[in-house]
Amino acid sequence: MSKQIVHTEEAPAAIGPYSQAVKAAGFLFVSGQIALDVAGSGDIKAETQKVMENIGAILKAAGLDYTNIVKSSIFVKDLNNFVAINEVYGSFFTSEPPARETVEVARLPKDVNVEISVIAVQ
Q1: Distances (CA, A) of 104 to 15, 29, 32, 35, 118
Q2: Which of 3, 6, 89, 110 has CA atoms 20 to 30 A from the CA of 17?
Q3: pLDDT by residue (tens digit) across 30-63?
């Protein structure tokens, strides 16, 4: 199996030993994205918006877009933000949204409030 590392300057660089995304077997696996520049602002909608924009930049670098996403995972520090996150997240999918889970977690990297990873297909 061959794989290709996908990287763009339009999204935050990895903060550990991982790649922004990896293409393999017709799939693109996008690592969890966070919103470093708005983290700590307390604005969950702004944070979610930036996370989704980061994902979009990585998709674009791989020659894909949001319509190629088949699965997403949302990790949130406070599930009370579920409705606000959904509002922003949902605006990126005009039809046929991907499969998804949303999980409340105790803590996220850099103390952000939301992290989203996706799997896309070519």
Answers
A1: 22, 21, 15, 17, 17
A2: 89
A3: 999 999 876 567 799 999 999 999 999 999 999 9
Q: Domain 3-121 carries which CATH code?
A: 3.30.1330.40
Asked whether residue 21 carries a pLDDT value surpassing 90, the answer given is yes
Residue written as token pair 């020659």: 63
Determine the Cα–Cα distance for residues 115 and 109; give it in Å rounded to an integer: 9
Q: Locate tokens 């088949």: which residue? A: 70
Angstrom distance (rounded) from CA 92 to CA 76:
18
Give me the DSSP letters along 7-54. Answer: --TTSPPPSSSS-SEEEETTEEEEEEE--TTTTTSS-HHHHHHHHHHH
The pLDDT assigned to 85 comes to 98
Tell me if 43 sits within 8 A of 63, measured CB to CB.
Answer: no
pTM for this model (two decimals):
0.95
Per domain, the residue ranges of the chain are 3-121
Cβ neighbours around 73 below 10 Å, total? 15
Instruction: Pick left, alpha or beta for residue 104 (phi over 0 → left; psi -120 to 50 → alpha; otherwise beta).
Output: beta
